[in-house]
Each structure stands twice: as C-alpha cells, then as structure tokens.
Amino acid sequence: MGCGRVGAELAAMLDQEDHEVTILDRSPDAFRRLPPEFGGHRVVGNGIDQEVLARIGVAEMDAFVSVTQGDNRNVMAAQMAKHLFGVQRVVCRIYDPIREELYHELGLETISPTKVGARLLKEALEREPAASGSGD
Amino acid sequence: MYIIVVGGGKVGYYLAKELVEEGHEVLVIEKDAAKTERIAEELGDISLRGDGCEASTMEMAGFGRADMVIAVTGDDEDNLVTCQVAKAKFKVPRTIARINNPKNEEIFKKLGIDTTVSATTAILSQIEQELPTHPLIPLLTLKGGGLEIVEVKVPENSAVVGKRIGDVLLPQQSLIALVVDEDGVPKVPRADTVLRAGDEVVAVTRTENEDALRAVLTASASYGPYGPPADTSRQ
Asked: Among A98, B132, B190, B212, which residue's Cβ finds the most Cβ atoms within 10 Å?
C-alpha cells in the first residue's frame, strides 16, 4: 500500500523474485514510479477503506506492507489487514519513532526510517573513511 | 472533568463550547493556526496548536491527567491513532472517536476505542426509522461496551400485544425503559403496563441479545408467547 519511491521499489523487487504483487495507491499517477517490466497488479484505491481491502483480496494475501506518506494511514491499514483480514505478515512504516515504538509494543511489525536512517548515518560518520566506493 | 478535544473544526469548536459551558476543563488541539486562534479569541485560552498524534504535543497538553479524549478531526486514521495512543501510552480512561466512514466502526471497536460516533450512521438511522422493515433500531451504545439502548415498534400481530410487561419474558440483562404509545404519550413502564400495537418500546439490552429481544417483542402470536422457539439464551 503506497506507491511512493519505497513502495514502488519494494513492489518491483518482489515482482522480480516472482511473488504475486498488488500495489495500491490513491493516485493513478503514482504508478509511473514502477519500472515498465513490473508484472503485478496496480490498483487505484484508498488503503484504509475496508471495502477496497476486501476487493483486492487482502484476506488471501500472505503479507501486507503499508508505506504511504502518512504514519497514521499506515498504522490504520496495517491494523485492518491484521485484525480484520487476518494477514499473517504485516509490516508498517512509521516515521515518528515514538509512535513506532508504541505500535511495536502493541504487536505490530514496524519500521521507523527515521531511526534506521539516523543510525546508518551515524555509523557512516564513525567509520574510517574508505579509500573509495565499497568500504568494509 | 478534564476533557481534551482533538480537532478544532466545526465539530470540535461547538463541542468545546458546550463542554466549557457545562463547566468542564477543556483543551482543543488543532493543527491549523487560524483555527487555533479563532478558538482562543472566542472561547478563551483553551486551544493548543499542534498535532494531536504527536507524543510531545500530547505530553504538553497533559494527556496523562485527562479524564476523556475526544478525537473529531475529519480523518478517521488520525482519530484512531489519537485514541489508541491516548489509551496505550497515557492511560486515558475514556476515548471517543468521530468516524467519517461508518464501515470503520468495526476496526475502531476491535482496537479498543470506547465509543465511536458517526454522523453518517446517525442520519441513516433517522431514515431507517421511517422504514417499517427495520423493526429494531439501535439508538445508543452505552459506556463500557456490551449494553445498548434500542427502539422497537410493537407490530399489530405481535404476541406481546395486550400483555402486561411483567408477564413478558425478556432476554437476560434486558429491560424496558420507556413506552411511547401511538399518540406519542411517554410512559414509565411498570409490571402492570399493558403493551399495545404501535407502541414504541425503548429498551436496554446486551448487544448479543438484540435479536432475542426483537423476537420477543415482534414475533407473531402464532409462534407462541415468547417468539420463535430455540432462539437465544433466556432466563
């Protein structure tokens, strides 16, 4: 859910690995981010609308990932997938680290790009500068 | 009571106004600067500009000592998260969320929001009250869950027509709270109040006994006195 940079990239990767992928976005324009060879389904719709989720067959899905720009939309959609449709694997992006921790405690699988990004940047700063390119 | 209202649009504004008039301590949290100012100008210093889902704003607003949080923004996802965070992180005893899409009622209930209010549902129930095909109308869900107030119109062929209320066997934890006769006269029901066709009965019941209650009050006499057999648990 959410065909932004991350959503499109992830969907393309999973499609490459021969998973059956459906990508959902409120705006049809968003699908331009997908590579031309993307073989999955593109659906225009609101991911926090129970009827939309039912229509795209969320109940039969093995995994659901919410990566829209809105933390709260992601949280709501993820909880709907998990609690209304019984999806086994649900991963949810939450930028706000505090909300991310809270929903993690409440049992959602969550990722905060803010926390992860800051940590990676800090680690990069603390590393000895590599000669070029690959590093260690 | 200390009541926090999240969302300073029209609903939040008038809600806050009424609550202040009732003597409650009220704080309205609103993202938009102009709306926040308008509330401050018209209702006094009771508005805070900020995001009602952001932990720092919530701490500043004193969610920890709030008796009630009411989320009335135009976005269901924001109302959901505000109420969930209020409950899980700040242990707010009572949370009320406005929902715009009536279908969201189910997920909000599942996620522990105490009360949901949907204008769409309220208007629909007004329409449905006009339709004879809808014999039981849920009016209000009571605090704490499980109990609700419903309205049933006693049909002409109902088995309870002509019976004393004391002789009608109601489902568990159900009681008849009010009877309004066909002329619109309200009566406090007593054991010897006789039910008549066309009476509007306002009753309190457990959600799971709704169908049983409807059966008791509306099933036709041919079923025998207490509605269709083998229905739901009765006393």
From this structure: B212
